[in-house]
From TrEMBL:
Biological process per Gene Ontology, one example term: aerobic electron transport chain
Localization annotation: Cell membrane
Function: Cytochrome bo(3) ubiquinol terminal oxidase is the component of the aerobic respiratory chain of E.coli that predominates when cells are grown at high aeration. Has proton pump activity across the membrane in addition to electron transfer, pumping 2 protons/electron.
Lineage: Bacteria, Pseudomonadati, Pseudomonadota, Betaproteobacteria, Burkholderiales
GO cellular component terms listed in the entry, alphabetical order: plasma membrane
Organism: Sapientia aquatica
Descriptive protein name: Cytochrome bo(3) ubiquinol oxidase subunit 3
Annotated gene: cyoC
Subunit structure: Heterooctamer of two A chains, two B chains, two C chains and two D chains.
Alphabetical list of NCBIfam families matching this protein: CyoC
Major site of localization recorded for this protein: membrane
Listed InterPro entries: Cyt_c/ubiquinol_Oxase_su3, Cyt_c_oxidase-like_su3, Cyt_c_oxidase_su3-like_sf, Cyt_c_oxidase_su3_a-hlx, Cyt_c_ubiqinol_oxidase_su3, Ubiquinol_oxase_su3_dom
Length: 210
């Protein structure tokens, strides 16, 4: 009651020095909220994987995965994304050592690798559509484009977030907020790697089986 009385008196007198903060945002609230977001993303990808499991053999007289997928190209793309996860880990290590230049270099390398991944994925999509294997061709291709495309959108968003963080680091340095953002993006980036391993195994490797 005394805190509320003092706060009321300060409002009437205009004495801002007597204001009291009755509650504050918990320091780990951002990380907890981001974990909840990742769990919701897990549900989205789980639904897409389930849809692909149901429609993955519905070719409607069209081409199958064995006829369409270029595994060497997909393997290269997978390597790019996995290596980008390693380079982001190096960036986090340099952040802990408070080395700005090397942190920015590793983040830039991560962004370039992610952009190459998106570039190859777009090349694959354009090639499939040019061959008449667009998402409207069959249930299999609808599920394929939905799953792989959603993952690609997430990676694209991660690249935009990464570039934004690079500019924030250059301007404000290793503030507590920037370090927290880097940690959230690290979880997001590694999460996308895990999802892609599932896509590569469940969609591409199993898709070429007879």
């Amino acid at each position: 009651m005394s805190e509320i009385t003092s706060f009321t008196q300060a409002l009437h007198t205009g004495d801002s020095s007597r204001f009291y903060v009755l509650e504050h945002h918990p320091e780990n609230g951002t990380l907890l909220g981001f974990w909840l977001y990742l769990m919701s993303d897990c549900l989205i990808f789980a639904c897409l994987f389930a849809a692909y499991a149901v429609l993955g053999r519905n070719y409607a007289g069209g081409p199958s995965g064995a006829e369409l997928f270029d595994l060497p190209l997909v393997a290269i793309n997978t390597s790019l994304l996995l290596i980008s996860s390693i380079t982001y880990g190096f960036a986090m290590l340099e952040m802990q050592r408070k080395k700005m230049n090397t942190t920015l270099v590793w983040l830039a390398i991560t962004g370039v690798l992610g952009a190459c991944f998106i570039g190859l994925e777009l090349f694959e999509f354009v090639h499939l559509i040019h061959e008449g294997a667009g998402p409207q061709r069959s249930g299999f291709l609808t599920a394929f484009f939905s799953l792989v495309g959603t993952h690609g959108l997430h990676v694209s968003f991660g690249i935009v977030w990464l570039v934004t963080l690079i500019f924030q680091l250059k301007r404000f340095g290793f503030t507590e907020a920037n370090q927290r953002r880097l940690m959230c993006l690290s979880m997001f980036w590694h999460f996308l790697d895990v999802v892609w391993i599932g896509v590569f195994t469940f969609v591409y490797l199993m898709g070429v089986l007879p």
